[in-house]
What we know:
Helices cover 43% and strands 19% of the residues. It has helices at residues 6-12, 28-39, 58-70, 85-95, 114-124, 162-172, 194-197, 206-215, 232-243, 256-278, 284-307; strands at residues 18-24, 46-52, 74-78, 100-103, 109-110, 128-138, 181-183, 188-189, 192-193, 217-229, 245-246, 309-310. Helix 2 (28-39) links the parallel strand 1 and strand 2.
Amino acid sequence: MTMVGDARQDAVAQDTLVSIGVPTFNRPRSLARTLKSLLDQSWKNIEIIVSDNASPDPAVEQVMREFCEKDSRIRYFRQADNIGASKNFFFVVKQSRAPFFMWAADDDYIEPWFVERAVQRLRQDPALVLASSEAQYVTPEGELLEFLPEGEAFRRPLAKGPVDRLRHMLKYNFGNLVYGLFRKEALIQDGEIFWEKTGLLSLNEIPILLYVAYRGEILVMPEVGLYKQAPAQVHAQVKWELRGGRLPAPCRLSSWGAIKGTWRYHSQALNHIDSALALLPLPDRERTDLQAVARSGLLRHFLYLLLGYKPRVRHAGG
Length: 318
């Protein structure tokens, strides 16, 4: 099937390299599917950087050797020791050589047009620093779950200043934004990956997305281009986040341990937000206001989880 824009790409854009980083650990079957979807991209000028975090299963290295023999666009690194998930995420960025970069999880896959359309959006609008698409959740067994428009609030650029973009991100953030295509410069502050610069060895996506929002505009295309593997319980909670109502039974805080763990997670998220905002060149008053927005939002979210109910939401954007 010929993708829209292929001919134009051949004419004007073959010089634009895209780096795709794949941190992986011990999932040879899904890794093979991920790599196939990346190699099948209509945008051919790519480098795929795979960092195996010392997987004990030898099948991971076998999969990588087979793919490397077939396609020279793959660069394979195997860590001698497990360096932790976050450092593995940082590692693939550091190895990238292109002006555009994206992460790909080793259990996800994307449509053949994903990279091409994202590159086109970034080339068309210099204010954009991140272009992505909607995602479809898929169970580990391969069942497609109900589509949820998480990216509705990012359908078009906000066309406002950095503080307004930060407020918007604090209100509408969702984790799948991390798997879009970035201008790599929007991930870097003073020569360091901003995520790493915060000193937080966690894969909480909030610090990097706040920095990206500070740097420029974010766009989520309405088409489903990303397929995200997740248990049905994760899908159920995302659906509740978007629509409100009664929290599904499997997602409820049914024990004192679950309540404490959820409170600890929200406290950690707030710490991550404070760390990210502290590194942004903002006036003190605006930073304080943004911290207050974050605190009220996280506290409200925790109370909704505690009560097992959230007021009905008409739409995700606005």
